[in-house]
Amino acid sequence: MDKHKLLKQYFGYDAFREGQEFLIDSILEGRDVLGIMPTGAGKSICYQVPALMMEGITLVISPLISLMKDQVEGLNQAGVHAAYLNSSLTPGQYRKALGYAREGRYPIIYVAPERLLTEEFLDFALHTSIAMVAVDEAHCVSQWGQDFRPSYLKIVDFIGRMKARPVVAAFTATATKEVKEDIISILMLREPALMTTGFDRQNLYFGVMTPKNRYETIRSYLESHRKDSGIIYCLTRKVVEEVCEKLADDGFPVTRYHAGLSDAERKHNQEDFIYDRKPVMVATNAFGMGIDKSNVRFVFHYGMPKNLESYYQEAGRAGRDGQPAECFLLYNGQDVITNQYFIENNQDNQELDSLTRGLVMERDRERLRKMTFYCFTNECLRDYILRYFGEYGKNYCGNCSNCLSQFETVEVTQQVKIIIGCVRECRQRYGTNVIIETVHGADTAKIRGYRMNKNPFYGELSEVPVYRLRQMVNYLVLNEYLAVTNDEYAIVKLTDKSGLILNEEEPVIMKIAKEQTRPVKEAAGRKGRRESGKKTMDVELSGSDELLFERLRGLRTEIAKEEKVPPYVVFSDKTLTHMCLSRPKTKEQMLAVAGVGEYKYEKYGERFLDCIGRG
Ligand code: ADP
Ligand code: ZN
After folding, report:
1. Which part of the chain has CATH 1.10.150.80?
2. Which of 125, 129, 160, 364 has a 20 to 30 Å separation from 423 between CA atoms?
3. Distances (CA, A) of 490 to 340, 371, 482
4. Is 0.90 topped by the overall pTM?
5. Taking the CA of residue 443 as centre, how many other CA atoms within 13 Å lie in the half-sphere pointing to its CB?
6. Contact call for residues 262 and 313 (beta carbons, < 8 A)
7. For atom 25 of ligand 1, which residue has the closest CA?
8. Going by CA atoms, what residue is nearest to atom 12 of ligand 1?
9. For domain 3-196, which architecture applies?
10. Is residue 71 in contact with ligand 1, taking CB distance under 6 Å?
């Protein structure tokens, strides 16, 4: 069968996405490949399709048990025989699976890196034909990355033991130069065919908010998105506990995850989330590696994470099915201080010598600064992220809170002159809050204690609201008219450019959002995406489509229970949306729905047709 037929038959898709075909063709020509593609781009298809076309078995090396389980369930649901070999199997199950593998029942086998050099596995691998070794999450070989796994170093030894060298195909979503070079050299890829696809995730909406009451923002969002699945990331375990408890009290189906829970509870809660029994997860950043849930519709950050790498990775867990999804960062000035504390007290760095530790801390502070600027910028947020990762955006994406806010430009030269004057007069000794309170004329014990009420600029800007003053200070720091020290005190200092303002050599024109935050979208119809050829457009499901969607979702839950798999493994939200829009009546029409392959049709196509017919 050719690759297009395979794609349609097993996965139900009509066309390959960017980069997939090139990688598949290269693999089929016997070349090693390295695919660097963002989360959700569709890396798995790049090795699964050729695996079904090559003579011999494909071994997929994957770092996490949950990830393997998910992938294997997905393949079996699609009618591809696949198995995994890892420590979650009992010795009996392991031997049985290996026995089937020897008989050649599985074209695709997922295996944990720790297993590769065990006697039993080597004996199997040496007596069978291995066509390809696909290395998922290949950045785990690199010490530069965030997820270095020593067991990944076994991969290259293993490949070396094979009599005939299989094709080696490596995949990752980590794009930095060091990691890429490490993957190529450590895995000893031979002149690999390289494919890097853009890091933009167009289906994700990005928003930053600084609400007075973060909890209330989340609560009202959940209220209007009752049926959606999502993740709420918090900075600390304590906040996870608080937010989760409040949401549960308010009647939302939430669960929690952090490193302080027992293994058993973590596993249990994670499954509640994946199986949509508790579709809302409140977690620290310990949650998410290997979570493949495709129908996550929103990710909230209840506080600013430590850097943009983490932010984009965590927010990127939304919308893996390509459907519109929303990512909100709720920023609060305190977050910077919390993160600074984490940096100063990072246990991971204790073994480093003091010089290296200093460098690492400096790097982390710099990353934190860039993250903080993300919360302040008035430019396109998507653009900001893409530029951070070394890509060029379009300056305007139309799908982020800044692109969608209305801004006005105002001249603030006289006002910022007062702020900078205040910093100079107090001899650059205080942090932002003290400066803002001084020019605003706050009459507090602290201000009197610092004698800032004697500062010549005290109360000069009492008419300007505090949030506006804060925006101005942020603007000045962002544009280097002021600097904030990179330590726990965050003291405001003058810069080389401060004089330009004091001497009025440059007018200062600021872009200011008309409303401070974008009101969270109403629970208007579910948004779908209709793909016609290359064009993609957003559509809102109408009332009757929405009802059908709910019924189809109910049927999917029922089938998922029967099959003991997560609902999205049966069909993705995207596939259900397509069914609502096209309302297929026949087998042919059903097979034309993206995500419906022959095998799945045979299993449940008719039940879905019936359900649609009744609508
Ligand atoms: P990654 O591993 O790159 O994060 P996945 O392999 O999990 O991404 O794929 C993400 C989603 O995109 C899955 O639901 C997958 O079925 C879907 N997908 C992959 N390739 C295609 C394609 N050519 N057309 C439509 N959907 C696709
Ligand atoms: Zn934008």
Report:
1. 527-614
2. 364
3. 10, 15, 12
4. no
5. 0
6. no
7. 13
8. 42
9. 3-Layer(aba) Sandwich (3.40)
10. no
